[in-house]
Structure formats: C-alpha cells, structure tokens
Amino acid sequence: MARRPRPAEADPTPDFSEWVAASGPALLGFAHMVTGSGHDAADAVQDALVAVCPRWNRLREPAPGGRTIGADAYARRVIVNRTVSWWRKFTRREYLIDAAELPPVETPDRAASDPAGPVSDSVVARQLLGTLPTKQRAAVVLRFYDDLPFVEIAEILHCTESTARSYVHRALAALRGRLGELPEPPHPVSPSDEVTR
Fold first, then answer.
1. Which residues contact 83 (CB under 8 A, 6 or more apart)?
2. Per-residue pLDDT of the chain (197 residues; tens, 9 = 90+)
3. Predicted TM-score of the model (pTM)
C-alpha cells in the first residue's frame, strides 16, 4: 500500500521575491527621503537588496541569543550606510553651496481652499529635511515617517539608543530654527472680510 504524501506546511515567512514585492515600495520611499534623489534612492535600494539576498535565511530567522535585526531593518541600514559613504566620497569632489547661502524657501501665496497647499508644504518639508546630515535625516524619517521606536532606530543606524534620540533631537532643533527663518505666508482673505471692507 502506497503512503499518501503529507501536505506541505505553509512557510510562515515569505520568500525573498515576495518580501521584495511587499517591502520594496516602503524601502524606496525611505531611500528617497534619505538621499533626496529618485535616482540615488533606486541605486540605494538596489544595493540594499543585493546585500539582503545572500543573508536572507539569517535575517528572517531569530538569532540564537535573542533578537535579530530582520530584513527590513537591515535593508534600511544598508541604505543609510550607502548614503553616508556616497556623501563622504563624492561631496569632496563637488563644490556645494552652504545651506546658509541658499535663498530662503518661500511658500507661495495661496488661499485656504487651494488643494495644492499640502503639496507645497510637503515640498518645503523635503527641502528642509535635505539640509540635515544623513544620519539625522534618516533618524527623523525612521521616527516620524516609519513610526519606529528609538530602539529599532538605533539598530538600523548601528548606534546606541541615546545616540538615536540625540540624532532626532538635534535634527528637530535644526529644523525648528530653519523653519523660523521662513517668511510667514500671508493670511488668506476670506469673502466675509471683503464684504466688511
């Protein structure tokens, strides 16, 4: 009598290609915010995927002594490290303008009902984010875009939790200072104000 084959058990973890399909868009968004460029973001994500692939089995299984960093966190670490290395390598060859020498970012005049208002706010936020050093920028994105706790940010940035907190604290202080330098947008005139004039 022939034995009936056992049904294959479902793999609780996705395979590499499924993980790429599921996590790829989020990694690309993270990389775009960290690098400030769509082309550099795509290159950074490609490098991260190349780094994750040979380590896939180790990254998806818990380490014997406790926690493991995981594929998502490891990919983000590679993106940050690649951006820092790229910046160190190539900014010495380029003549960059200091952020203090750039003209102030002006928000366009817009009415309160203008649907482009949030878009221009997003552009200003990205410009301000781009003035931060790479690790501070990455820490802010991980904290407020990816909503990660400081312990996970520390793992991704390969630093202590207090250093991760310091990156976020310094970045927010710098952003507040730069935001305070922006001109106040004019108060939109409502139709009721025009009637009373």
1. 31, 34, 35, 40, 44, 134, 138
2. 455 444 444 444 558 889 999 999 999 999 988 888 888 889 999 999 999 999 888 887 665 555 556 889 999 999 998 888 776 655 544 444 444 554 554 544 444 455 555 556 777 778 888 888 889 999 999 998 888 999 999 988 989 999 999 999 999 999 888 877 766 655 555 555 545 54
3. 0.64
